[in-house]
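FIELD: query
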Amino acid sequence: MQDVKSETLRIVGFLCNWCSYGGADTAGVSRFRQPTDLRIIRVPCSGRVDPLFVARALLSGADGVLVSGCHPRDCHYSDGNFYARRRLEMLKRFLPFLGIDSRRFHYTWVSASEGQRWQQTVTQFTKQIHELGPASKEAENAAAVALSATPAAAGGGAALTVPSKEQVEALKKAVIDALSKVDVVVGWKQGFDPLHVEPCFIEKPEQAGQLVFSPLCEQSLAPYLTRLKGKKVGIIVKGCDSRTVVQLLQEGLIARDSVYVIGVPCTGTVSVKKAAAAVGGEKVVSVSFEGDAVKVTTASGEKRIPLADILRDKCEPCRYPAPLVHDVLVGEPAKAPAGEGPSGYDDIAAIEAMPLAERRAYWERELGRCIRCYGCRNACPLCVCEESCIAETRDPHWMTQEVTPAEKKMFHLVHAIHTAGRCTECGECERACPMGIPLMKLKKKINKDMLDLFNYVAGTDPDEKPPLYTFKVDEERIEEHKLA
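FIELD: result
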């Protein structure tokens, strides 16, 4: 019998087969009064509930999602619910960032003998969802919000050092020396105009002359490590790039003896998109660095642009200017900024400070510009599924190729959640995006939560496991969520 007297809403429940489903059955056999809004999906274990199941349900129109499993220390498969607890807590914190009320999602533990506990849980959760109203109302509220401003990006005022000719020559020599130990060295060369550089693959000493290294070398070369399997690869890495190398080593995606790392100090790189915009998109004839500025010459004349104005957003708060792993270091190690611990989450805090409807409107506006080109995925060094990518597979047919707002948001949720606890904030997704969508903010939000929950920073320790790959029986920073 319906216990909440109002219209029936769509609530999805993922219930563990061994405990919570049994608890729901016990409640039914005992004839406890329960709401009829819940639609139960039985799963083998709460550990099999991918956070994307919850996201898919909410984006497909569910008004609420409930996940319930065995109590911790009482899992039928020993530790499935321990993994679930970390993943679901991450999602619980992530949903409000997108403008989805966290009260629409709840996870809990109910055993097979706890029929009364199940009845209380489902009744309270259903009552909470009815008080919130249909999820469509949140979408309507977001549509009614007029955004007059975008949250300010971090940056402005960081020093940027241009490598000297001597340093560039030393790098070329290091590459030539490395060729006796590897099959190929991946570096940078001049691109189609003076403002752009592109990757190059050096296999012979005479090819080293094409190498360039300057603040224009913004692209990470780390994605090529997993694409050159079967070869011993030399690679030039900046500090931020070295974090990706560490993460790939952590996950066993590359072997340490198959990579020769040439480290270079870095105090920041130029955003080529910002530089091109500063000259109005005109064809660039020449680029030169003069102190704290870059001089760009186009057909209409010269323009001197302060480096601080075109510095990449990720560079100003960077705390890893020196490579964390290397076989040879070219130049003096750059020093990290004063202070302790990672920084650079001011832009995330600015979004979190927005009202819920504004957050939802912000992301619907930003992700609404996505054209589903998959440039962000293709550039990501940690997206290694290749032809089995969930965004394109038809077995299972998880997503469509439609360009609807829900499908666009789902694609970016897939990317963010698949790199949860792994993203090294290399910025390749954002650099590759032709629409200028601030995709890094999605990843940084999760990284901020990884730091808060597990004191973990991705890509800094090759011997440490990413937090969602492991668990603790007693989680110090995860509290059980109580229903009102």
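FIELD: remark
The chain has 15 helices and twelve strands.
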